[in-house]
Amino acid sequence: MSRAMLSKIERQEASPTATVLARIASAFDLTLAGLLTEPTQEASRLLRVQHQGVWTDPGTGYRRRQVYLSAHLPLELVEVMLPAKTAAAMPASSYALIRQVVWVIEGRLTIVEGDASSTLDTGDRLEFGPPADCVFRNDDAAPCRYLVAVVRR
User: Fold this and answer.
1) Total structural domains in the chain?
2) What three-state secondary structure class fits 7?
3) Which of 15, 43, 46, 91 sees the fewest Cβ atoms within 10 Å?
4) How far does CA 117 lie from the centroid of its chain?
5) E strands within the chain?
6) How far is CA 62 from its chain centroid?
7) Is 49 helix (H, G, I), strand (E, B) or coil?
8) Which domain holds residue 21?
9) Is the Cβ–Cβ distance between 132 and 114 less than 8 Å?
10) CA 87 to chain centre
11) Model confidence pLDDT, tens digit, residues 17-52
12) What is the CATH number of the domain that holds 91?
């Protein structure tokens, strides 16, 4: 990524995609949540839905809601809504510092992890293997909603 593009993102002249944000986060040894969440937010045992951070990818409509993030516990919970007929790619570097499990709440999701492809239906879950480039794909006509549970190393 060029310095010019980073500068445009910083000045809010460009809207980065999920893939671009994942690359930026991994460059700083952060998870995507660590990059998107304001560090000044105090941890609370109760966080109402209206206070959970939401970010939407301007290119695909991919929406992520940060359900749980704490400096005291190396666990992150993220709810994702992937619109129909869309895909989001994540580079292997974004998985270097984490382990994760995806659980499909509603819909169908295809995850291409390196050379392996898995299609998950409602209720199915997938534990990720070693870091690999990944594509989260919704080939159906309806949105897919899933939970990502991340454990930071």
Assistant:
1) 1
2) helix
3) 46
4) 18
5) 54-56, 63-69, 75-82, 86-90, 98-106, 109-113, 116-120, 125-127, 134-138, 144-152
6) 9
7) helix
8) 3-39+47-152
9) yes
10) 12
11) 766 776 776 676 666 666 666 544 566 789 899 999
12) 2.60.120.10
